[in-house]
Design goal:
The complex is a heterodimer of chains A (287) and B (327). Chain A is mainly α. Chain A has one domain: Orthogonal Bundle (ABC transporter involved in vitamin B12 uptake, BtuC), CATH 1.10.3470. Chain A is 74% helix and 3% strand. A two-stranded antiparallel sheet of chain A has the order 1-2. In chain A, helix 1 crosses helix 10, helix 2 packs across helix 8 and helix 6 packs across helix 8. Chain B is 69% helix and 0% strand. The longest helix of chain B has 27 residues. Chain B starts with 18 loop residues before the first helix and ends with a helix. Classes of the chains: A mainly alpha (287), B mainly alpha (327). At the A-B interface, helix 4, helix 10 and helix 12 of A face helix 6, helix 11 and helix 13 of B.
Chain lengths: 287, 327
């Protein structure tokens, strides 16, 4: 029973991370039907930036997080305006090739600067110990992660349901042509959303160092998980992504804990099965 | 009429072999004698050319975006390796058996891939590719895990010509397979079946209206291409006497896509040109620094998409058209 709770807890923490990183991808795919395989690269850049800020400038972990969000968001906005924008109408093949190319470049640059090994991270002491709740040992850092994502999700949900920007975004996801027709600047809306998504992904990458690790293969290694969250959750659906991310997190952690000899097999097998059973995602929105 | 058919009018008439094509197929002969110490590389170029040809049928002609084509290459490679390891060392039958196993697997996968949208296909092929990698990785008692299978006992060709270290037999063997499969593939894409594929790629809604069973055509071409990819994998295993797990990796699938798109998809020769340029460049540059290679690979892809769609042969075509218009 105790291990079950422990596995669930770790799975939920893992799923929260996946959600944080994949959210931007979900919006990109839902709003512009853009297959962005380079999304994991934003997370990876966020992780490396966090490590560099802590090591080079001696900043504390907590202080790097807002900086990472802003910097990766700005990088995302720059890439969107300079490159991505040209390919919204291109074929899926062109989008795939372009974003694989970007991922290769970022991965190679990261290897060149930081070397191929895993990057260690020094968490603040407050997050390093274990907390015992009802007889179950829970990692403080994972608890912090879950809390962080809960607060962030609540804030995002409020922003999307209560603000003017959120209403415009919902309109644009549902029907871009009609949204443009009633005077919403869909292009600008998308640039801003893309930047926020990239920033959140970078933030997720920085938070993920202690859980998923960080090396130059990160972007490709976890790409499948991010894509899976989006496709299973239904592109453009935040609730769907959250559900899918938590489900995947728990399944993956449970699989690795209870049947370690099968390894990553479960996640890939469940991916193929889910895709075949629910071609339009769990939440049932057509792309 | 027949003389003008092939590229200009999409007819079913048997396309003639143009002088340029014949010259293209004679080019490996001087290369074989000019670089006797590079014959293993030449043999690998033929193998990857064959592999890229297989993706061209799926992507260039049928328009199915596959991110896990290495699954079939690896299936063929491991089938050939396991056959040899368990005593079936005759290469030709091993090659055909590997192709058949891979084609059967391809038919099975096509049932999952074909009905989906672009995004769904991309995800399913990616998932199948990763799944196969994980299977080979976990079943290490059979597949050798990460280390792969080495020192495979591959028999002599026709019982007489062994695959030596000098790469002479390897070169001739891979070239013969490539040439044979190419002739068949060329015949296939100019047949009514090939025209139906192009019709599906251009306008999938219209094809059922003229009586084409779209999904059946796509399943068949997917299985055929999987078989060809399996033969390429088997040929690599047999000519190198080893089979590594990287034959199933995502990197392999991505590189394949790069070869094909760089050469130019949907024109058969693009696959061969792309594979040649890629392999030669990799041989020359990757030795200097693997990261450097990876970076420029990515840069070439980005530039290709933004500027030069249609690849190398597409660019040559455009130049050719411009020159002709001047005269």
């Amino acid at each position: 029973m105790r291990t079950l709770i422990g596995v669930l807890f770790d799975g939920v923490a893992y799923g929260s991370l996946l959600f944080l990183i994949s959210l931007g991808l979900s919006v990109t795919m839902g709003l512009m039907s853009f297959v962005n395989l380079a999304h994991g690269a934003f997370a990876m850049m966020g992780g490396f930036l966090c490590v560099a800020l802590m090591r080079r400038f001696g900043l504390s972990f907590g202080l790097t997080l807002p900086l990472v969000f802003v910097a990766i968001g700005a990088a995302g906005a720059l890439l969107e305006v300079a490159l991505y924008r040209r390919l919204y109408r291109a074929s899926a093949l062109d989008q795939v090739l372009f974003t694989i190319g970007l991922t290769f470049m970022v991965g190679a640059a990261a290897t060149w600067i930081w070397g191929p090994s895993q990057q260690p991270i020094e968490l603040p002491p407050a997050l390093r110990h274990q907390i015992t709740v009802l007889g179950v040992d829970l990692g403080a850092y994972r608890l912090f992660l879950i809390g962080f994502v809960v607060v962030l999700t609540a804030a995002l949900a409020l922003a999307i349901t209560r603000t003017r920007f959120g209403a415009q975004l919902r309109a644009a996801v549902d029907n871009p042509q009609a949204a443009a027709g009633v005077g919403i600047n869909v292009g600008l809306l998308f640039s801003v959303t893309f930047a926020i998504g990239a920033g959140l992904s970078g933030l997720g990458g920085a938070l993920a160092i202690d859980v998923l690790g960080l090396d130059p293969t990160f972007a490709l290694k976890y790409l499948v998980y991010f894509l899976l969250v989006v496709v299973v959750g239904g592109p453009g659906s935040i609730r769907g992504s959250l559900l899918a991310a938590l489900l995947l997190g728990v399944v993956d952690v449970a699989g690795k804990y209870y049947v370690p000899q099968v390894g990553g097999f479960i996640i890939y097998a469940s991916m193929v099965v889910l895709l075949v059973l629910f071609p339009h995602g769990l939440h049932g929105r057509r792309v | 009429m027949a003389a003008a058919s092939d590229a200009s009018t999409p007819g079913i008439a048997r396309p003639r072999w143009r002088p340029l094509e014949i010259a293209f197929w004679l080019a490996p002969i001087p290369a074989y004698f000019a670089f006797p110490e590079r014959r293993l590389l030449l043999s690998q170029i033929f193998v990857y050319g064959l592999f890229a040809l297989s993706l061209d049928l799926v992507l260039g002609y049928a328009g199915i975006l596959s991110l896990g084509h290495a699954a079939f290459f690896g299936t063929g490679a491991y089938t050939a390796a396991l056959l040899a390891q368990h005593g079936w060392t005759e290469p030709l039958s091993g090659l055909l058996a590997s192709g058949a196993v891979s084609a059967a697997f391809g038919l099975l996968v096509s049932l999952l891939v074909v009905p989906g949208s672009d995004l769904g296909r991309l995800m399913v092929t990616l998932g199948v590719g990763l799944l196969m990698y994980e299977v080979a990785n976990q079943a290490s008692s059979i597949t050798g895990g990460v280390d792969g299978l080495t020192d495979l006992p591959i028999g002599a060709l026709f019982g007489k010509i062994p695959f030596g270290l000098d790469g002479r037999a390897a070169c001739a063997y891979s070239f013969a397979i490539l040439a044979l499969v190419f002739v068949l593939a060329r015949r296939l894409v100019h047949s009514p079946f090939g025209l139906a594929l192009r019709g599906i790629r251009e306008n999938v809604r219209r094809m059922p209206a003229i009586g084409v069973d779209v999904n059946q055509r796509l399943r068949v071409v997917f299985a055929v291409a999987a078989g060809i990819a399996g033969m390429a994998g088997a040929a690599l295993t047999q000519t190198t006497q080893l089979c590594g797990i990287d034959s199933l990796g995502f990197q392999r699938s991505a590189e394949l896509l790069i070869m094909l798109v760089f050469g130019g998809a949907g024109r058969l020769y693009g696959a061969l040109v792309g594979a040649t340029v890629f392999m030669v460049a990799q041989d020359a540059l990757a030795g200097i620094s693997p990261d450097y290679w990876q970076f420029w690979l990515g840069a070439v892809l980005v530039v290709l998409v933004l500027i030069a769609r249609g690849g190398l042969l597409g660019a040559l075509d455009a130049v050719g058209r411009r020159v002709r218009r001047r005269h």
